[in-house]
Known about the structure:
The protein is α/β, with parallel strands linked by helices. The protein has one domain (31-235): Double Stranded RNA Binding Domain. It is built from seven helices and ten strands. The protein has helices spanning 4-28, 38-42, 73-77, 84-99, 120-131, 207-243, 264-284, and strands at 32-35, 57-60, 62-68, 104-109, 135-145, 154-158, 161-165, 171-182, 187-199, 249-252. Strands 1, 3, 4, 5, 8 and 9 form a six-stranded mixed beta sheet that branches. It has a two-stranded parallel sheet with strand order 2-10. Helix 4 (84-99) runs parallel beside helix 6 (207-243) and helix 6 runs antiparallel to helix 7 (264-284). It is globular. The chain starts with a helix and ends with a helix.
Amino acid sequence: MKLVRPIITAASLALLVGLSFGCAGFYGSHDTRRQSSTVEFLYPKGKDLKQRPTIPHMTLPISVGIAFVPESEERRRRGYSIAEADKRDLLEQVAAQFRELPYVSRIEIIPSAYLQPGGGFRNLDQISAMHDVDVIALTAFDQAQHSDEGLLSITYLTVVGAYVMPGEKNDTSTMLDTAVYHVPSRKLLFRAPGTSRVKGRSTLINADAERRKDSAEGFAVANEEMTANLKIELDRFKLRLKQEPEQYVIAHKPGYKGGGATGPAMAALLTGALAVAQWRRKRKV
């Protein structure tokens, strides 16, 4: 009995230590990163980065394609992706903003399988021809989920510069970014970002389920902000079509009389509407 008690005590101690390290390892080893990059897709390894866009020749009304930028093969294999059904749900909200525009005739939601990692503008040319669209909205994402033991900040390189979101313990940081391109001219027309942060509240028992829930909530909130920003950018773009004729060559399809042909009165009205929308957003902050 004298030998048994020390053995039991030692075993208990070893078990407690093991559990302690197991818990720390559980939380510390569950930092995850889901990410796709418009820059990496369009300019793989810096290819064609110096290519200069030309002046877009656009015939109104336009057809628009919308797609998620593909993740790298490595991230796909590791399962750090978004389900195709969830991608479509998010893109439907983006498409709704374009459907309200008089100068847009058709919206095509393009399956992720049609875009290849590092496909670049050659890939966009194929999609443009296949779906008969000259304008494509590319949505990229970056989501980091942090555990108790680690801090994982988002540093996302957009087409106009880097965006940084510092990480905190037990939270989910998400960024969505939609960049709209005129494919034939390679010109970026505009972009709209959206971000969110969901504070973690999981325990050891339900950690995985809570992370999945936080991930879905993070994408939903970021997408809501992004679509709101997209609406503002679409209004700005409509004004630029009139105010910067040297930047865009606009033609109309037979029978089309709307969209980019607004007069001074309508331009003033849109400017006022844009100012009101920005004022409302500032009041919410």
